[in-house]
Amino acid sequence: MFTPKPLFPGARVALIAPAGPVPPERFGPAVRAVEELSLKPVIFESCRRAHGYLAGDDRLRANDVNAAFADREIDGILCIRGGYGAQRLMNLIDWNSIRRHPKFFCGYSDITSLHIVLNQQCGLVTYHTPMPSTEWYRGLDEYSAQSLKKVLFGGKIGELQNPAILPVKTLVGGCARGILTGGNLSLVSSSLGTCYEINTKDKILFLEDVGEEPYRIDGMLNHLKMAGKFRDCAGILLGSFTDCSAQDPERSLTLQQVFEELLVPEHKPALMNLACGHSMPSMSLPLGKEIEMNSISGKITVLEG
Fold first, then answer.
1. Using CA of residue 85, residue 90, residue 91, residue 92, what is the dihedral sign?
2. Between helices 255-262 and 214-226, what is the axis angle to 10°?
3. Which intervals hold domain LD-carboxypeptidase C-terminal (predicted)?
4. pTM for this structure?
């Protein structure tokens, strides 16, 4: 895996929207939030476009991804938001060019589709982080801001620790070591059966989601289970599952029951409640980096070098 050069004060960063459109009222505050980190935003066209639920048509959004990587004057790439639509770009992106011009790349949610391919096919470490028009524009809490700055500016990440008031929970005890992969559960699940399918062999699989009822989480986890993705992985990290409670609790399993019934029988070290996903505070994760996890003590460490 290739770790891209970190950003630095004055770095020129491309702002792109590979998925959904930026709400107009958030655009200005998002750009200012990037500038407040001493970065120089370069606004790509997709950030200003809307095509229904997409930030411009597929060709325009893919061209922005390709151009941002190919431009030698760009030091890094920030996805300004998620939404929906990144999967529509897979066959339009020049992955060979990206291999030749690797650089810092971050985002989350629908951006999971890009993370998987950048990690697996381009050998590029990428970063699962909050995004400018989703969280940055409102002002980040201290925990989230410090975690973000570590990955942006190349600080040693070391141990991945939740805020003290939000302890992680053991689902299955044990120790594991492997490359960190994954992201949003719905995007990970929908990659199956495509040429961009996630590879979990001997890796630590991270999953999070938002706005899905327990039966939907059940279905997506079961899809991964039947595809052997939990059998193959070394360990499992479950992040935030925000607004994923049942509308009719009396006729539903809880998420805890879903995790226990589908994941515990896999006998893989597993932790719950990692502070990462569609929630704040949220840590930033280095996808493609090797990590060690002890799900009994709750210790997770990024292995440097």
1. positive
2. 10
3. 177-293
4. 0.96
Separation of alpha carbons 189 and 222, rounded Å:
9
Instruction: List the catalytic residue out of 208, 282, 284, 295.
Output: 208
H/E run at residue 31: helix 24-35
Q: Is 278 a catalytic residue?
A: yes
Residues in the chain: 305
Closest CA to 185 of 203, 213, 210: 210
Nearest to 107 by CA among 177, 30, 24: 30
> Which tokens sit at 168?
């992680």
Taking only the tens of pLDDT, the chain with its 305 residues reads 899 999 999 999 999 999 999 999 999 999 999 999 999 999 999 999 999 999 999 999 999 999 999 999 999 999 999 999 999 999 999 999 999 999 999 999 999 999 999 999 999 999 999 999 999 999 999 999 999 999 999 878 999 999 999 999 999 999 999 999 999 999 999 999 999 999 999 999 999 999 999 999 999 999 999 999 999 999 999 999 999 999 999 999 999 999 999 999 999 999 999 999 999 999 999 999 999 999 999 999 999 86
Cα angle: 248, vertex 254, 258; to 5 degrees: 130
Q: What is the DSSP string of 40-63?
A: EEEE-GGGG--BTTBSS-HHHHHH
d(CA 281, CA 147): 10
Which of 102, 93, 80, 73 lies closest to 5, judged by CA?
A: 102
Element (H, E) at 229: helix 229-232
**Cβ pair 237, 188 in contact under 8 A:** no
Q: Which residues contact 70 (CB under 8 A, 6 or more apart)?
A: 94, 97, 101
CA end-to-end span of the chain? 11
C-alpha to C-alpha distance for 286 and 218, rounded to whole angstroms: 27
